[in-house]
């Protein structure tokens, strides 16, 4: 049995992986899935079982991802037109403490980075 990696599931939403599984099943492509390991080293993957199916599976995946990208861009554009997408300043007005904490973390990082230089001088 040969095996070919089709998709690493790291950072892949559950709805996307479910749609890909359904797409492979619909086209009768034999596949199996490895589960993510307990410590997060491996995120799991979808593998193709047969050598002859890998080209078709990759083409189906490429088409699916192109369609999903267009759908996501369209949904984002619609949400932006309808005013459902928050701007940076709207987010900062809603969560000012978050902005203060981010700026504080940046200042600490810069201070720690420059500390050796300040001590040497």
What level of helicity do the residues show?
Answer: 55-70%
Provide the domain count: 2
Counting DSSP E segments of at least 2 residues, the number of strands comes to 3
The CATH topology of the largest domain comes to Alpha-Beta Plaits
Series of H and E elements: EHEEHHH
* Largest beta-sheet details: 3 strands, antiparallel
Rg (CA only): 23 Å
Low-pLDDT regions: none
* Overall average pLDDT: 93
> What strand line-up does the widest sheet have?
1-3-2
Provide the structure class.
mainly alpha
Beta-strand fraction estimate: 5-15%
Number of helices: 4
Q: Quick one: CATH class of the largest domain?
A: Alpha Beta
Structure description:
The protein is mainly α. Helices cover 60% and strands 11% of the residues. The protein has helices at 14-26, 54-81, 88-94, 96-120, and strands at 4-8, 31-34, 45-48. Strands 1-3-2 form a three-stranded antiparallel beta sheet, with helices on one face. 6% of the residues are buried. The mean pLDDT is 93.
SSE topology sketch:
Layout: E1 4-8, H1 14-26, E2 31-34, E3 45-48, H2 54-81, H3 88-94, H4 96-120
Antiparallel strand pairs: 1-3, 2-3
Helix pairs in contact: 3-4
Key words describing this protein structure:
single chain; 2 domains; Alpha-Beta Plaits; 4 helices; 121 residues; 3-stranded antiparallel sheet; mainly alpha
In short, what is this structure?
The protein has helices at 14-26, 54-81, 88-94, 96-120, and strands at residues 4-8, 31-34, 45-48. The protein is mainly alpha-helical and 121 residues long.
